Amino acid sequence: MEFYEICFSPTGGTKKAADILAEQLSEEIHPVDLTDGKTDFSGISLKEEDAALIAVPSYGGRVPETAVKRLSQIKGNGAKAILVCVYGNRAYEDTLAELEDTAKAAGFRITAAVAAVAEHSIARQFAAGRPDSQDQAQLTEFAGKIRKKLSSGDTAEPAIPGNRPYKKAEGAGMVPKPDRNCVKCGICAEKCPVQAIDKEDPRKTDSSKCISCMRCISVCPHSARKVNSVMLAAVNTMLKKACSKRKECELYL
């Protein structure tokens, strides 16, 4: 059995949660980076005896459209899948349901699912430092249960929450822009999952392509990209009530 970690994690929070599970499930992991726009995902084909951990962030209660498109190109061929959605302590709404449908359409069989919390990618004070030691202990214990299910041959699918049709997808809205510290090194353009940043002039961003994933902010070595401070303040105010109380991982087996 080969084990794959298929992950869309622009700022690293989703991968951090996914790694906790993946490292408990297999000693040898084949990584598939869904943020890499240069990869031909249609060339990735699993076998029925394989297993995959498929992890995505929740953007406004939905799977990022880019992740849906790229995951849909992978051939699951009956491989078992552990689904992971990661959210910034507000709510994940229909993310797991949409991920379940996308994975099944790609040929995966669902074994387990997790909704985990990580630091909010925009309002970073919410769920700061998560997944933390408490999350790690909970996810490590759950990985043991997943391992037993995989080895037992149990094919029962978990009951995953969510609505169909899914909630309406929200627009990008917050497009990071460079400030005077930008030296046009091009790292942001190279790492952008949707090639929204001009490689010739990284000061130019195509707002119609931007998915507000905040990766350009997280990878900039000069801290030279930021979102509009007024919009950020509005987001912080909007999220304060919903995100202040700690939410725990939700586990589905």
Short description:
The protein is of the alpha/beta class. The protein has 7 helices and 8 strands.
Structure description:
- This protein has 253 residues and is an alpha/beta fold.
- Helix content is 31%, strand content 16%.
- The protein has seven helices and eight strands.
- It has helices at residues 13-25, 65-73, 95-105, 133-152, 187-191, 215-219, 229-243; strands at 3-7, 30-33, 51-57, 80-87, 109-117, 177-178, 225-226, 250-252.
- The strands form two sheets. The chain has a six-stranded mixed beta sheet with strand order 2-1-3-4-5-8, sandwiched between helices.
- α1 (13-25) crosses α4 (133-152).
- The protein starts with a strand and ends with a strand.
- 42% of the residues are buried.
- The model has no long low-confidence stretch (mean pLDDT 95).
- Residues 149-171 are annotated as: Disordered.
